[in-house]
């Protein structure tokens, strides 16, 4: 996953005029602040009402929201840096890239876990309370982070083993391929992402069709669960675009040679920003319980103002 898909080479970046570069940065920052503001409201609503603490569905949801907030913030920082500071110390860049990679890889895994929870709630309702406990949910979140770390940290270890110490004191354009340049890392990344994709999509399809064909498929809850998983699938589809970013860049350069930087900017918005704006819609707006408490929070805030 290329966490800075909008960052381009020196010549590409300089192709933007000052006004265009400023416009792009303003758009990105405004979108990021808007998404994070909404997500902050969701987190505040979650914290203020104990009913959400005991529900694994909302715990997984709020983990996804926090994860997305972190990911959006990091990618926006990297985007702005690419137009302002331009070059960063490799050690500092490594920290940004690693954190962005952790949170980016967490998203599809979290979506798969939420789809499984929907499946258990609809297809195994009598066992839902036994299977989906708060303790197991927290352990599952820990497993998500462990899986992401096991996928990403080898990049750092390979770089530490193959690059001289001076490399980590140099300044580079902050991209994954510049701080983790070893070709072996690319092969490892492609293999890991392929495994992730297959597993997550199998989970999404399995849970969707099991709910579709369950005996309760005519019920309102079953239909809503199917629609929720479809939204998860759409969100996952957008997130998956990060897997093919290198191929997409080459294609954009060939298709739109005169508007290459604009095409990359549009890709960045679609791949990095848009998927993170879907989470509030899935539970913050569609879920009756969360929407009820969120309305109370918003109305209370307006009345105080």
Q: How does the SSE layout of this entry go?
A:
Elements: H1 10-14, H2 18-48, H3 56-83, E1 87-89, H4 90-123, H5 128-131, H6 134-162, E2 171-173, H7 176-179, H8 183-212, H9 220-240, H10 245-255, H11 260-273, H12 279-285, H13 288-304
Antiparallel strand pairs: 1-2
3D structure, described in words:
The model is unreliable at about 5-10 (pLDDT under 50). With about 300 residues, the chain is mostly helical. It has helices at about 10-15, 20-50, 55-85, 90-125, 130, 135-160, 175-180, 185-210, 220-240, 245-255, 260-275, 280-285, 290-305, and strands spanning about 85-90, 170-175. It is globular and about 60 Å long. It is built from 13 helices and two strands; from the N terminus they run αααβαααβααααααα. About 75% of the residues lie in helices and about 0% in strands.
Q: Report how far apart the termini are.
A: 43 Å
Question: Major sheet, described briefly?
Answer: 2 strands, antiparallel
Helix tally equals 13
How does the helix and strand content classify structurally? mainly alpha
How many β-strand stretches? 2
What's the average pLDDT? 78
Strand content: under 5%
Give the neighbour order of strands across the main sheet: 1-2
Strand and helix order: HHHEHHHEHHHHHHH
Overall shape: globular
Unreliable spans: 4-12
Estimated radius of gyration: 21 Å
**How much helicity do the residues have?**
over 70%
């Amino acid at each position: 996953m290329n966490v800075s898909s909008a960052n381009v080479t020196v010549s590409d970046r300089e192709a933007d005029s000052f006004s265009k570069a400023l416009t792009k940065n303003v758009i990105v920052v405004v979108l990021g602040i808007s998404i994070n503001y909404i997500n902050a409201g969701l987190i505040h609503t979650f914290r203020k009402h104990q009913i959400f603490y005991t529900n694994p569905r909302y715990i997984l949801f709020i983990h996804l929201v926090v994860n997305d907030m972190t990911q959006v913030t990091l990618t926006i920082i990297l985007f702005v840096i690419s137009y302002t500071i331009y070059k960063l110390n490799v050690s500092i860049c490594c920290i940004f890239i690693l954190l962005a990679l952790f949170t980016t890889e967490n998203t599809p895994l979290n979506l798969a876990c939420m789809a499984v929870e929907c499946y258990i709630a609809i297809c195994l309702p009598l066992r839902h309370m036994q299977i989906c406990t708060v303790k197991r949910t927290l352990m599952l979140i820990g497993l998500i982070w462990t899986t992401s770390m096991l996928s990403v940290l080898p990049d750092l270890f390979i770089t530490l083993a193959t690059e001289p110490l001076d490399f980590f004191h140099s300044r580079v354009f902050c991209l994954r391929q510049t701080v983790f340049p070893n070709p072996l890392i690319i092969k490892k990344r492609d293999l890991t992402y392929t495994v992730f994709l297959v597993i997550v999509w199998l989970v999404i399809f399995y849970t969707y069709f099991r709910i579709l064909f369950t005996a309760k498929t005519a019920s309102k809850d079953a239909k809503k669960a199917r629609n929720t998983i479809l939204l998860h699938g759409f969100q996952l589809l957008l997130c998956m675009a990060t897997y093919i970013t290198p191929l997409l860049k080459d294609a954009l350069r060939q298709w739109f040679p005169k508007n290459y930087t604009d095409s990359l900017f549009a890709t960045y918005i679609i791949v990095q920003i848009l998927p993170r704006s879907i989470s509030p819609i899935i539970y913050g707006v569609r879920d009756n319980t969360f929407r009820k408490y969120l309305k109370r929070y918003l109305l209370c805030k307006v009345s105080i103002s």
